[in-house]
Amino acid sequence: xxxxxxxxxxxxxxxxxxxxxxxxxxxxxxxxxxxxxxxxxxxxxxxxxxxxxxxxxxxxxxxxxxxxxxxxxxxxxxxxxxxxxxxxxxxxxxxxxxxxxxxxxxxxxxxxxxxxxxxxxxxxxxxxxxxxxxxxxxxxxxxxxxxxxxxxxxxxxxxxxxxxxxxxxxxxxxxxxxxxxxxxxxxxxxxxxxxxxxxxxxxxxxxxxxxxxxxxxxxxxxxxxxxxxxxxxxxxxxxxxxxxxxxxxxxxxxxxxxxxxxxxxxxxxxxxxxxxxxxxxxxxxxxxxxxxxxxxxxxxxxxxxxxxxxxxxxxxxxxxxxxxxxxxxxxxxxxxxxxxxxxxxxxxxxxxxxxxxxxxxxxxxxxxxxxxxxxxxxxxxxxxxxxxxxxxxxxxxxxxxxxxxxxxxxxxxxxxxxxxxxxxxxxxxxxxxxxxxxxxxxxxxxxxxxxxxxxxxxxxxxxxxxxxxxxxxxxxxxxxxxxxxxxxxxxxxxxxxxxxxxxxxxxxxxxxxxxxxxxxxxxxxxxxxxxxxxxxxxxxxxxxxxxx
Length: 548
Hints:
Number of helices: 25
Mean pLDDT: 89
Strand order of the largest sheet: 4-1-5
Structural class: mainly alpha
Distance between the termini: 22 Å
Oligomer: single chain
Helix content: 40-55%
Largest sheet: 3 strands, antiparallel
Shape: globular
Radius of gyration: 25 Å
Number of strands: 9
């Protein structure tokens, strides 16, 4: 049974657990400050983002000088000042940016990692990462980073909305329209509709395989969603400043091709300009036992949209159980019982599928904070490395105050390390996304986690454009509010920063004996600080270091 009653008291360890699961970690000091608040109010504020000072982050994010996501131009995150007009800021890889023509996949990945590390409102970033796995989409087919980042922005902005609203937004999203072939779905006349999206919106995104729908339901929904695609306005074609003939699509505008007038001068696929109109089917369908007029939709809805929305009402039990399993696997435990799923599913239905209400209930619950669910999941590589960078690197004020800047060179870290560690952000291999928990670990992905651990803990360097720089800048002395008095104090502080699962005393003692041999004495000097880096590396590479 999942006890969803709210906890009435909590500790700094509880707050740290919330920070790991519903964000990207908290420092020991931040966890203690959070624990001083009543848990219910603290979780509400965590989910809603109240009481946050965004001034510095917004300024950094909007800055034109960007060593974070364009190391080949700025050389590195520690390369000093660059010409403001020459280098786009991190925002340049969002859909409304003037430099979206660059269309760099690596910089797009880097911008996501940067936000995960520094965004004061961490919870939407965590929810966006969750939805990015559930609504998995890949750039290798979409072939447009601006559209991929636009989809991720939908997850960030609407990840706490009602699930039917989010489902419709994703169904209309340009990247998804390309990814699952909505752009090819023509049900006009005698044409056979493309069923790819209609199948996956139920099998992978809302109900689960063969769970309450038939092949005929797939065919009927495909007819309802035929013609769903997008156009591109002339203003959304971004030209290269060095080659005006080279243009990239920076934004797509949802459109149902139903024979109506075209308001945009440029179609997503110029070659299909003559054939796209009239792709939407007409008449009435029967979907999940209900009739829908796909020619005349309800006011304010696109043709066929009411059919998508009906999934939650027609199959509320199946949909709520599907969502419950996915939420539990990511936020609580993968070893849930059927009763746990039923309890969380009931809460989802009681909240009318409002993810904001559901997540508040779940994150306040006795079930979420249960001892059995602490360190019960293997952390995914993206959040794992971001959390390590947050624990050992400079926070935003300190990083911004460094000269040169102390931000990680994420564009050098995500490729190939993050890709090979098992989570190629913005490029899922298939529509079923990444399997979680223990599926994150195998002999190859662990190897790249150790490479990441070395970059984060050992201050490894890399060379880009002939300039060598630190990938993850850090200062060992800043890890310790007070100089440690012995090796055990070094270990305890690093555990507080990195928050691994429980480390056996024998393992701990073996590490300390190797790094600080008995009889050699202890001094907090440069040699000991280097050993502290090595100990941080061992903690990150340990089995306990993969848990959260």
